[in-house]
Write a structure and sequence with these properties.
single chain, alpha+beta, Transferase(Phosphotransferase), domain 1, 2 domains, seven-stranded antiparallel β-sheet, five-stranded antiparallel β-sheet, about 30% strand
Length: about 725
Amino acid sequence: MAADRSTDGLGKQKAVFVGPHQLLRQLGSGGMGEVYLARSPGLRLLAVKVIRAEYAEDPQFQRRFRQEVEAARRVTGFHTPPVVDAQAHGRRPWMATSYVPAPDLGEAVLRFGTLGEAGTRALGAALAEALAAIHAAGVVHRDLKPGNVLVARDGPRVIDFGISRAFDAVHLTRTGMVCGTPGYVAPERIVADSATTAAADVFSLGCLLVYALTGRTPFGDGEPAHVNRRVVYEEPDLTGVPASLLPLVASCLAKDSARRPTATAVLAALAPADPAALLSPWLLADLDAREQQAEADLGAPPADPPALPVRTWHSLSRRGLLGLGAGLGAGMAGAVGVPLLLTRSARRAGGRAPVGKDVDAWGPEAAGSGSGTPPAAPAPLWSAPVSGVTITHQLSVLGATPVRWSLGQGAVAYDGATGRQAWSRQDVQFFQVQNDLIYGTSLGFTDLVWLNSEGKSHQGPLTVPADQLTTAAMSLQAFGADGRTVVLARQTSPTGGGVVTGAELSSGAVLWQQGITQNMAVFTARDSENTQGGSGSSMGLVADGRCYYEDSKVIHAVDLRTGASHWQVTGLTSGDPGVTTRLVRAGELLLLVRGTAVTALDPATGQQRWTAPTVPQVVFGCALGAGRLLLSGAGGTAYCLDLTTGKGLWHTTVGATTGAGTGDYQAPSAGDGFFAVPLRDGSSGAAVLDAADGAIRWVAKAPSDEGAWTTAAQGGTLFCGSATTLRAFRASAA
């Protein structure tokens, strides 16, 4: 952001305002926006967070941001700086809170040392009191970490409540990541981010207490995926926690959220605590310097007030804000978040798909796109309650049998005609679907198991090194198989490297093995993208006696039985570890779908057949049907191309965010003459599009407590699964 340092014609620099508040200098920045020190018309210092434009232009973010700001205004606790002004609409939404001239906890521990038992008790009591006030107002912080705790002279302050949930609403989750800070995110949020409750904040509080006492998190550091695995599967390292605090800290870090105390109970356990125990001589000296600077900022000559009404932009262009921040050091921690995977070309105006050369290359906009109220869905053919599976789930159709399955929770199959439960299996860790079989391992990771549509299983021995057993569920994948051979990927190095192994399906005997250097947190992405009429995966692909996979910018094709190389192709992918390449077999083509690009290769030679027009939105999922490929992107967009030529056929906007719900993204699906796209726009549901021209046939909406929908199609039937219900709809045209 910033600064066209314009003048008034006399050489005097004009002031820059957000609403009525004059910006003085940049305090910090992060993935979500920038934080500025500002002065109100009444000469009060404020911390103003200005949201980045790529988030602001999403209507869902604006709606959620407004709701969260309204809730944050209700928080009245002493340890939470009050929200004094905000604007949720416009090019750059913003929120202003009272300014606290103090370092954050991370800076304080790094510069002045750990807090000791007395200081940690004072910190914990203050944070528990703040969380109790936040939770009483109906808000969950979602990102409590050292950078969001300020250590002030009169006690700690918790900042950034009322923003994280709005950010989650539009965050385009990278595979293997969740919104929040690794090492402070509760295990239930890592497994299923929709499971966020006040108990998740208490888990973060427990992590903060360990950090204040020891200077480290209880789950170590390193790659985010490795830290998250330890949070889910390993016990915290509480070395250095005093015996008097050990039971409380351990209870805050319980894996089961129901076993954690409430914030009020934590406060009772820590009180009474002496706030002065936080104030070392070094911290006091730092606070003195910050407070003196604040007095100087407040006493600077005031600028002319803005001519426009309160809560409107005045003299604040994107260029102007960028210049304001240039050359100024950050005085405090700014807002931080996970980068949104949107390019500039992905921006939208007025809630519609972007209009320009790229979109024009994708053919006409479909009827009913982005405007009006789409037709409501027909009544379901049947609906069935779901029980026992509470974490992020996947939905597949094996033959004519819909199967709802998830990691660690087993699989449940239903009769496709009636919705009655056909069978269930809870004794297997499920990983991938291929050729109408679900592949996984036994609970002890000793056997490879595969299930057919009738729930009948077969299995063969599988060897996992003893030191990898605790992480096997997160790093081991069966990503492809034919009738004789299965291909597995497994992490073998703490730095993320691993191996791809071809094994005899019946006996588990290793046929070949290839080392890979690509970070396994990306390579073993758990997106069960089961494209109708073809097979696709972000890990690799098995088809026609070959195994295809990407490793560090190189696409490999190897013999399925021997591992011998057929061909290698470079230069088609960027190698960005945060962007996944999906490999999809479509007829006589091998498709590479990455970010905003789609390329078709000859699977026998690796030669390029065609490259599709640039997709104006980052692709979250794809589906094959009737010789066409559907790409679902951000902002409720869908793009359809012809598989023979790569030519764009049509595009549409269904008015909700596709694939950007909490937890894993949800891929679209294809049936007879239609595509189905899962939606997230505050509630959840699915849109059914005509495959011929993209016209919206109907949209199904569900209560918000159901969480994200997944879809799978078979013939003219669309199956939709949520956290509570499985439904079947007639989706083909009458």
